[in-house]
């Protein structure tokens, strides 16, 4: 799972030193403590790549047009914990890793599933979401009830997503789309038979739109873990992991999850 552009920055791996060092008033200040690199002390900015079209994780509030979502809130809380401002670059999913590798941003916050293939190229934080896959069909289609039924059918998926890999592995033909919204549109139009996506995204879509033209017909067997993605050997990983640990320990991570899903989906 993944969506106003705001140079590459690095943080020291010595995050634990941050808890031992504070500002003169006793509060935690990563820059003052010397726990971040010189570039962060100068900029104080964490640059984040995200889609901006993947509700409820990264999207624009229809009422305000502000970028919002679960992933947006979690990475913003992480940046706050590190004493950094956060700036977002909105990028289509299929180009999001290229932007990371090119140094356009420092981290991808977009429900990126941890897969063996991605682990060969990228570093990941500890997971902040755990989910399963939902198989979505038109409401009047009774031909699919499980992953075994998608063989030979056409599914709409982001070409580089893990859901596309799962669909292909199950024998489906993949029609490449830019994101979940486009996949649902093609499904409603009858141009594809199904789409597979994160169950949290699908449930939130059904709840918020009241769409009765599509349904969850089945689930994938595997559980996936989503995390922040970094370039290989990024010094940011340890710092972000420590921030996630702190957010989990004081309940803020679960609170963000409850606000978006009414449940703790972080573990």
Strand content: 25-35%
Number of strands: 11
Distance between the termini: 16 Å
- Helical segment tally? 11
Overall pLDDT confidence: 85
CATH architecture of the largest domain: 3-Layer(aba) Sandwich
What best-fitting shape do the alpha-carbon axes yield?
globular
Order of helices and strands: HHHEEEHEHEHEEEHEHEHEHH
User: Which structural class is indicated by helix and strand composition?
Assistant: alpha/beta
CATH superfamily of the largest domain: Periplasmic binding protein-like II
From the alpha-carbon coordinates, what is the Rg to the nearest angstrom?
19 Å
Uncertain parts:
1-38
In CATH, the topology of the largest domain is named D-Maltodextrin-Binding Protein, domain 2
Question: Which class of the largest domain in CATH terms?
Answer: Alpha Beta
Total number of distinct structural domains: 2
Largest sheet: 7 strands, mixed
- Helical fraction: 25-40%
Task: Explain this structure.
- The chain has 267 residues and is of the alpha/beta class.
- The protein has 2 domains: 16-129 and 225-261, D-Maltodextrin-Binding Protein, domain 2 (3-Layer(aba) Sandwich), CATH 3.40.190.10; 131-224, 3-Layer(aba) Sandwich (D-Maltodextrin-Binding Protein, domain 2), CATH 3.40.190.10.
- It has 11 helices and 11 strands.
- Strands 1, 4, 5, 6, 7, 10 and 11 form a 7-stranded mixed sheet that branches. A two-stranded antiparallel ribbon has the order 2-3.
- The longest helix is centred in the last third of the chain and has 14 residues, at 236-249.
- The protein is globular and about 55 Å long.
- The two termini are 16 Å apart.
- The relative contact order is 0.19.
- Residues 1-38 have low confidence and may be disordered.
């Amino acid at each position: 799972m993944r969506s106003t552009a705001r140079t590459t920055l690095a943080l020291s791996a010595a995050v634990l030193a941050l808890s031992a060092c504070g500002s003169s008033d006793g509060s935690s200040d990563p820059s003052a403590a010397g726990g971040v690199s010189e570039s962060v002390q100068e900029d104080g900015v964490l640059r984040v790549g995200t889609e901006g079209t993947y509700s409820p994780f990264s999207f624009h509030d229809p009422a305000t047009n502000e970028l919002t979502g679960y992933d947006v809130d979690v990475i913003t809380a992480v940046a706050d914990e590190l004493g950094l401002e956060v700036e977002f670059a909105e990028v289509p999913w299929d180009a999001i890793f290229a932007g990371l590798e090119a140094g356009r941003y420092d981290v991808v916050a977009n429900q990126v599933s941890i897969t063996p293939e991605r682990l060969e190229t990228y570093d990941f934080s500890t997971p902040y979401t755990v989910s399963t896959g939902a198989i979505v069909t038109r409401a009047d289609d009774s031909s699919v009830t499980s992953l075994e039924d998608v063989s030979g059918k056409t599914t709409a998926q982001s070409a580089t997503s893990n859901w596309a890999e799962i669909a292909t592995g199950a024998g489906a033909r993949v029609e490449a789309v830019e994101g979940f919204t486009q996949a649902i549109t093609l499904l409603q139009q009858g141009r594809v038979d199904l789409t597979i996506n994160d169950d949290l995204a699908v449930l939130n879509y059904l709840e918020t739109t009241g769409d009765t033209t599509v349904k969850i017909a089945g689930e994938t067997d595997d559980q996936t873990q989503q995390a922040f993605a970094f370039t290989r050997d990024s010094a940011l990983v340890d710092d972000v992991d420590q921030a996630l640990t702190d957010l989990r320990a004081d309940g803020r991570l679960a609170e963000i999850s409850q606000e978006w899903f009414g449940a703790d989906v972080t573990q």
